[in-house]
Amino acid sequence: MSITVIEIEERSRAALLAHGAGEMQAAAVAKAVARAEALGNVICGLYYLESYCTQLASGRVNGTVTPVVSRPRPSAVLADAKLGFAQPAFAMALPEAVAATLENGVATLAVAHAHTCTSLGYFTEQIAAAGLIGLGFTNASPVVAPPGGNARVIGTNPIAMTVPGEDAPVMHFDFSTSAVALGKITMAKAAGETIPLGWAVDSDGQPTTDPDAALKGALVSAGGYKGWGFGLMAELLAAGMTGSVNSLDVSGLKVAEGKPHDLGQFYILMDPGTYHADFGARFARVAEAVGAQEGARIPGADRHVMTEVDVPEALWASVLKLSA
Fold this sequence. Notes:
Blueprint: E1 2-4, H1 5-18, H2 23-38, H3 49-58, E2 68-73, E3 76-84, H4 86-104, E4 106-114, H5 121-129, E5 133-138, E6 159-163, E7 171-175, H6 182-191, E8 200-201, H7 211-216, E9 218-219, H8 225-240, E10 263-270, H9 279-291, E11 308-310, H10 313-323
Parallel strand pairs: 3-4
Antiparallel strand pairs: 1-11, 2-3, 4-10, 5-6, 5-10, 6-7, 8-9
């Protein structure tokens, strides 16, 4: 079914309100859902709406709490989500974080004790919209084992970065530090297919092509030890710097019942003109070299924002039911 992004946002907001979210909170989360769909990031869009609503009803996320924003140091901003959604916490803290960056050249924003933020790049692109470079980190429930191991320790732990341009970001990436998303393995199992070597290990720590064995084991990091290092970096910044929980202490993100997620996100905001005025020229030098090669591109350079998207009929029926 072809649905406008405006209707997706309106229906998402109505669904969240119907399940106990406050006006401000519902609007912030619905905006993020719609943006994900507009960019084709379906896993972070309507696919997550039922989980949001279910966990609002069960109390796993507080949909009415007001985040508390403070500045413990001149270039450090803290947004305590109070076990509510990450989106309103970030929205309330962003103006203070931008001000701190313009004052100091570089600033950090810690979002603490929050529900999963879903699309990390959704936040870094807002930093870039203020003319700043945005770099973000977050963690999630444990699904990744260390190289040589067999037990889950960290989450997919994504990293995102957005670089501002005159009219739109000139670079944007948002990817997990695991070799693959867990959903691809569950989809392979449902389809009766095997998975490539290098995605996961079984419960004994041995590489496997069997999705069922992989689901009983763990994912592996992208690029082996290199990806593992980036995943640990995201873990230590998202949990350690914010005072939120480690991946080890979070149950499944979409499980209806249980403790609140209590996750953290950590952002670094940088004014590209802090040290000299040639940042744009330095980036253009690289972009030109990439653009001269057929088939090559700068990450995010060809993103297309849609105003209308295709939504599976069963999923849209669920949305209509949730928002009724």
